[in-house]
């Protein structure tokens, strides 16, 4: 089986056959590259008609256990956009389900947990994850690494806080009140919960890295609900456990609404700090000096008029130059209603940077 790409993969995403030497991997290691590599969180998924067609009649979490589907869905945005990295198609709750947690992903809602964890006894739902629990992950990553050739595959896991929030609340939550109540009223149960979830996420990443993923991203999507002090005390040590466990590949640590404690996110053991759209990258570069940054186009702005999107991309490219290295991305995931052609134009605009610089000094920087 071979994949055909709309764009020549040897010219756009990388110039070498080794994904560890790709533009993305070099930027993730902190090298200044001729242009920022570009990929998008949630680049696979409902914004793509080819995804919706393939997923018809197959529940989300079932699709994640079918290596043929995982491979195809992961490759779809790579083919369509010529992005510089693929992100593994799965979900943060896949390893929870694999250890027996009764969790499902409800369309339009998100993860829903049948028996929320509120007491020490509820922790019995969380046993360690063994590689044999997720043979389909190993198989899909290996297939993808073969198909992708020089293009790096990013593996991922949910960070302990974000996963714990779903487990404690029983589903998506605006205010995370049950989570915060548990954290503060029963810190012993909280820390045991986060240790168990951290071990599960670490094991999930380990399967992906051993199967050939070139980098990993830890998603702490809801950490922005916390104060810096609570993050430092109740969450950071557990996220650090996950990041410290990763063998020899760059680690991206991403949160939403975490600008106020970006240095803590960096200190948890990230090689690259993901930044949402609230904080300009030049300001982020001052907050986490020396760290490569990833981000940070507001996904909602992709719906604005074309000149607005172009101006925003230029602004982010310029601000990203203040970091030692910049990986262009959105500030959070692609929204389901996003027009794929808009994303295609963003990729073109970012990938044109190197070309115009090679031809002469940039006019707009
Ligand atoms: C919080 C979170 C989840 N899952 C994830 C996060 C962290 C990233 C973030 O903050 O966006 C991570 C995730 N989920 C998915 C990916 C795939 C890779 C990619 O980024 O392209 C990744 C990296 C596929 C998915 N995960 C999900 C979909 C949509 C499923 C569908 O087709 O209905 C996809 C493609 C489902 C899901 N799973 C989750 C949510 C909130 C949802 C959306 C629910 C909805 O609005 O329908 C939990």
From TrEMBL:
Ranges in a coiled coil: none
BP-aspect Gene Ontology terms: protoporphyrinogen IX biosynthetic process
Localization per Swiss-Prot or TrEMBL: Cytoplasm
The EC number(s) this enzyme carries: 4.1.1.37
Site (Transition state stabilizer): 91
Predominant cellular place of this UniProt entry's protein: cytoplasm
Compositionally biased region (Low complexity): 10-20
GO terms under cellular component: cytosol
Uroporphyrinogen decarboxylase (URO-D) domain mapped to chain residues: 37-46, 154-170
PROSITE patterns: UROD_1 (PS00906), UROD_2 (PS00907)
Pfam families (UniProt xref): URO-D
Signal peptide start and end residues: none
Keywords from the UniProt entry: Cytoplasm, Decarboxylase, Lyase, Porphyrin biosynthesis
UniProt xrefs under HAMAP family: URO_D (MF_00218)
Task of the protein: Catalyzes the decarboxylation of four acetate groups of uroporphyrinogen-III to yield coproporphyrinogen-III.
Family named by the database record: Belongs to the uroporphyrinogen decarboxylase family.
Protein name: Uroporphyrinogen decarboxylase
């Amino acid at each position: 089986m071979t994949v055909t790409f709309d764009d020549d993969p040897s010219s756009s995403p990388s110039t070498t056959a080794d994904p560890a030497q790709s533009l993305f991997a070099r930027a993730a290691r902190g090298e200044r590259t001729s242009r920022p590599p570009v990929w998008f969180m949630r680049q696979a998924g409902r914004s793509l008609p080819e995804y919706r067609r393939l997923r018809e009649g197959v529940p989300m979490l079932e699709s994640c256990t079918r290596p043929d589907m995982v491979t195809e869905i992961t490759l779809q945005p790579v083919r369509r956009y010529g992005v510089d990295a693929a992100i593994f198609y799965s979900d943060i709750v896949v390893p929870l389900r694999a250890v027996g947690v009764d969790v499902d992903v409800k369309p339009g809602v998100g993860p829903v947990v049948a028996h929320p964890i509120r007491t020490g006894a509820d922790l019995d739902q969380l046993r360690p994850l063994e590689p044999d629990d997720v043979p389909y992950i190993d198989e899909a990553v290996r297939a993808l690494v073969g198909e992708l050739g020089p293009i790096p595959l990013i593996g991922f896991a949910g960070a302990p806080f974000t996963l714990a929030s779903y487990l404690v609340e029983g589903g998506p939550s605006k205010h995370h009140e049950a989570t915060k109540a548990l954290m503060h009223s029963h810190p012993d149960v909280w820390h045991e919960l986060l240790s168990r979830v951290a071990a599960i996420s670490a094991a999930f990443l380990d399967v992906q890295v051993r199967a050939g993923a070139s980098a990993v991203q830890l998603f702490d999507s809801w950490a922005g609900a916390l104060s810096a002090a609570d993050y430092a005390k109740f969450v950071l040590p557990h996220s650090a456990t996950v990041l410290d466990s990763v063998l020899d590949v760059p680690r991206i640590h991403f949160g939403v609404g975490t600008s106020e404690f970006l240095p803590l996110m960096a200190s948890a053991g990230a090689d690259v700090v993901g930044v949402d759209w609230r904080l300009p990258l030049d300001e982020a570069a001052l907050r986490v000096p020396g760290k490569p940054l990833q981000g940070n186009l507001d996904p909602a702005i992709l719906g604005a008029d074309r000149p607005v999107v172009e101006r925003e991309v230029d602004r982010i490219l310029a601000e990203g130059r203040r970091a030692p290295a910049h990986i262009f991305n959105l500030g959070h995931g692609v929204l389901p209603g996003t027009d794929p052609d808009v994303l295609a134009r963003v990729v073109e605009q970012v990938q044109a940077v190197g070309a115009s610089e090679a031809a002469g000094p940039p006019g707009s920087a």
